[in-house]
Write a structure and sequence with these properties.
The structure is a homotetramer of 360-residue chains. Chain A is α/β, with parallel strands linked by helices. In chain A, helix 10 (184-194) links the parallel strand 5 (167-171) and strand 6 (198-202). Chain A has helices at residues 8-13, 25-30, 43-46, 48-61, 75-78, 82-97, 113-116, 120-136, 150-161, 184-194, 207-224, 264-277, 290-299, 301-304, 327-330, 335-340, and strands at 18-19, 65-67, 103-109, 141-147, 167-171, 198-202, 229-234, 281-284. Chains in contact: A-B, A-C, A-D, B-C, B-D, C-D.
Chain lengths: 360, 360, 360, 360
């Protein structure tokens, strides 16, 4: 369908930066289509135009990947709806991807079952069901994401590898490691040995913490003499205070996270730091809106050689403000201004950090 | 076209709450379609699907008004494009309005010309050009918004009144009054005498400050023995520190406002306070995303007797969290929790307030 | 005893700045001699050396007034101890005052009785008992301070006037007026008509709020065609959030006020603002340590023509840091640095403002 | 001279808690007697009553040690004054110690010379000169404090050991180790091998960080199979953001540290945490006022079996507020209230943390 496009590994092997997409669950919750708490993607069937629009915005922002909106879309969460949801999500991702330079990635994530019954065969069967839809729809590559246990992530990679397509695997862990205490470096080794070509982290932690964890993944591979491409899709929220359990444990989750939202400048720094760490697949997760993805594409435009379509509507480092009528606003049209600004909250009772609720 | 729908004055006269829509400029800037600094709405022609989607989200959130996205769309800002933009914006608003219980409001705002030449005839001509499109497209009522001078707002109301349709007028002023020092109460009197049936404020100031200003408008009318419906469309940002000039003067404007974004709970409080003040047309301006509009509709559901469509995806006061797997997250599914939470920023160097840049 | 010294009115009438002293209760509580909650001055009998030392420090810091430490030292608070305490306090103040250019002021404050029985005769009798000691000890002038009701303050002034000595009167009110709703301007008029030559505010509110209240006192006198010298002795704490009841209602009172303590630079600003407002008797109350008083004397040294003794140990605007071994600390030895610094708390969970507890 | 008193090692060997004293430099700077920047103790000669008073306050607060105020009082800092200063400081400490259950500790600290010439013989000679005065004045034990290099600290211990008196040694280091990169555990080993019976840290870092460093000292000794008593005298300021160089590098040093001052409740927590870590010599350094020392003595009163004299003026956990006239202030007279309070600053522009200036 998109014969001329380079595959994901072709891009990464040649040193290209791949810009990932952002978060669907929280964005679409705010747009009125996803239920907070359940966090399931029925919207792809119920209101496909809303999903298509968000895909389109990420594409315009520079994303090279349209991940199918199939988070928690396995049979154990969605029951009989699961197949229709997975199929519709593939169609939407493909439709938009074909309008630009983007690949379609079929995504699976941790199961609800794992927590209660670590039944490898049953869990792999859940993964395989989704994979069958992805194969029928001919996605370009596969992502196993949001795993908090290396064991279940390995099972997912093993199933996805059966397809012969490239497999990326990201865990939602921080520097302290997985839910069973497996260190990030060891998780990395297990994922690569299971067949993942791209490994990294997604969700649960903010930009800085996520990059710390990726650095540990990287060292783990180096120490084991293994190689893989690195990937990061952090939260679009500042979370230095979130503890081992990640943002779910913070008192603001999920309905009062607003003061923690990253600015576009914070994300430019994240993109640059990721690049300097050797990460070449850089995207976002919950809290990443289209303009955050654009910030990645703009920060790395010098390396990539081009700007994304949505940059037509955005001068770099605020240069659009040059047209403002007030001189003190025009004075903000420069990099130093935004790089050094410490934004205020306008909330007189606002503390800087929260104490996480007790974690498992 | 929508014969069964009650008009704006019919609704307000009978005591109904009218839920306004939210902000297009900043939302669409973040989605990648509007240029910050210029803040003009060419997107209605260039990417109508993006505007249609945002209208749809506001409709689902409970908005009873689809305001045409014609901000700064007069000839002096858009040159030859102006007519196509105004026409397309009307069509988009009408298309979505017809899918629910919403009216179309044609919107005009202050001109760029006024600052340099207070030429009443020339400025009125600019307004009249837009009005002609609105009449051709048969909008349901008219809004003159974002005026910082009562004089220019009066000119706008006078032109709009020529149409015979109901006219609302909102100024972007705070409690200190308009740019020439006219007190809010006096602005109110001038607008009503010019023919506005609905008066209020929009933009530039946060929820609390905007309601303070509306209270002053109300007193002004009472003292003059005049009557009008009240309307408020505040920013979706906390701005207690913004000074007379409003949010434009704060150092975070427009690219680092994230920590100031209101939560849905803040907006429920705003909606309740507005209602208690006697305001019956309650919406938002810049920073108001669809979920903020939904918060207005949910807060006032007891008075209105129904919830908006998007509440299917949102239990009141976080009740959707009842399904969460972690007990300490389930414990957040209650009103007291969110009403009393002081959200943190996750930014260790974040102050609560900023000092505005020098203002005109 | 100090024949050469100019009296308080002689100084003020000739336009001199009189530097007041600071707070005894909270300073001596922290030094281990005063009981928080009771706030009574038995220490003058029990540990006179501690009180002498604090007087000495204020004298060295530039204070021109040694106020007797007789706060709440009336018979209704101290019972049989009252006379010994008043006498000892006078002796200590005189002893230190005689070592420098300072006057002794006998101080009385609101009674406990007033709240329960507004018995003018009984309350005046309590005042008169203290006054008799002050006369016997021949203090230089008298201060009625910390009154929350204009009525009781007037009674105090009337009693003190019987002595023939100059009388100063300060109330512990904010811009909203006294406990019965008497506006500051009206309080001022009543105090001057009762015979006070110097009026102002002390305690309960921070520097900025206290000066706002003094401005209202000043206007009240001007509107009434009356004249008096102005005096201010604010808290040494930042209290913009304290509400009508003052600092007592803030949750941090009295054992967690540390983050609110003013820096010496804050106090220099206070001294300058007070001077510009026309206040010529400038001192402090609770939270004013000796270095805060020195900051007043240093800020107004150009007007007064001399520095206080303790400035031997303190270069202006941090110039002593010129001797520091580290260059980045030496770089702090200048006015712009300290004037513009926004000090941090080192407390990651620290909000900027508190909500006052319910007030009477 | 004080034959009945138990020596420092006798106390520690038997498991007693020894309460140290607090900071002289910053306290006496605020009282008007010490020059910030130079930080030298001429005040013991110039104004002995001020030093005597501060010693007395620490004694009343429960301190078991009167450290001679001889910080930076070596010949290379004070020139010809050095001998008079050391002698006077010993006399003052002894005079006050003899009024209670306190020992006199002669104190030396790092030299200015070390930074420029690491001349062991010359530096040891400077130490020996001070030691001769201490021996003549017959202090009870010796403290080598505020060393940033283990090498120089070892030289100091070696000299002090010549006296035959017990030697304590504290370094002003954080968890990252000394100025040459020697880890805390290794510093500990070197100090004990040189002859120190008590080791620990003082100054430069806040309570929490100081205890982290002491934990590292303790592990270092355990790993080396060595034993010593542990000691901590942290700053009375919150400094989580101070970096390797300690508080000197923070922009607020030394004239805007007010918002960082620890409350008495913070210090009770510090005392308890220190005790639980096995530290038995617990005192403070800069920023520790008498009431902070009292907080140590009160927190550990159950273990020690008695309260200090100054607790006559201080009910535990705010119980003195039981006498307050306002019910909402009386409601603060309990442990839970103060333990859980997050104090505000009253400074709307106040951030929680600072960025240290560049460090050497």
């Amino acid at each position: 369908m998109t014969p001329a496009k380079k595959g994901i590994l072709e891009r990464l092997d040649s040193g290209e930066v791949v810009v990932g997409d952002g978060g669907f669950l929280l964005s679409l919750e705010k747009r009125g289509y996803v239920n907070a708490g359940l966090w399931t993607p029925e919207v792809v069937v119920e209101h496909p135009e809303a999903v298509r629009q968000l895909h389109t915005e990420f594409l315009r922002a520079g994303a090279n990947v349209m991940q199918t909106f199939t988070f928690s879309a396995s049979e154990d969460n969605l029951e009989s709806q699961w197949e229709a949801v997975n199929a519709a999500a593939c169609d939407l991702a493909r439709e938009v991807a074909d309008r630009g330079d983007a690949l379609v990635a079929g995504g699976i994530c941790r199961t609800s079952m794992y927590k209660h019954h670590k039944d490898e065969a049953a869990i792999k069967k859940l993964f395989r069901l989704q994979l069958e839809v992805f194969m029928r729809k001919n996605v370009d590559f596969l992502i196993a994401e949001y795993f908090e246990s290396a064991e279940e992530a390995v099972w997912a990679v093993e199933v996805l590898k059966e397809s012969g397509k490239p497999v990326a695997a990201t865990m939602c862990i921080g520097p302290e490691g997985d839910v069973h205490g497996v260190a990030p470096g060891d998780c990395a080794v297990q994922l690569v040995k299971a067949g993942a070509s791209i490994i990294g982290v997604n969700c649960r932690f903010g930009p800085e913490t996520s990059l710390k964890t990726v650095a540990l993944l990287k060292s783990g591979l180096q120490n084991a003499g293994l190689k893989a491409h690195l990937m990061v899709q952090s939260l679009g929220f500042h979370m230095p205070d979130c503890g081992k359990g990640g943002f779910v444990d913070l008192p603001e989750y999920p309905f009062a996270l607003e003061p923690r939202v990253a600015t576009r400048w914070d994300i430019q720094k994240y993109a640059r730091d990721a690049y300097n760490l050797g990460v070449r697949y850089i995207g976002g997760c919950c809290g990443f809106e289209p303009y955050h993805i654009r910030a990645i594409a703009e920060e790395l435009a010098p390396e990539r050689g081009f700007l994304p379509p949505a940059s037509e509507k955005h001068g770099s480092w605020g240069s659009g403000l040059n047209m403002h009528t007030k001189p003190w606003v025009r004075a903000r049209a420069r990099r130093e201004y935004w790089e050094n600004l410490l934004p205020a909250t306008g909330r007189p009772f606002c503390p800087s950090l929260s104490k996480p609720d007790a974690s498992e």
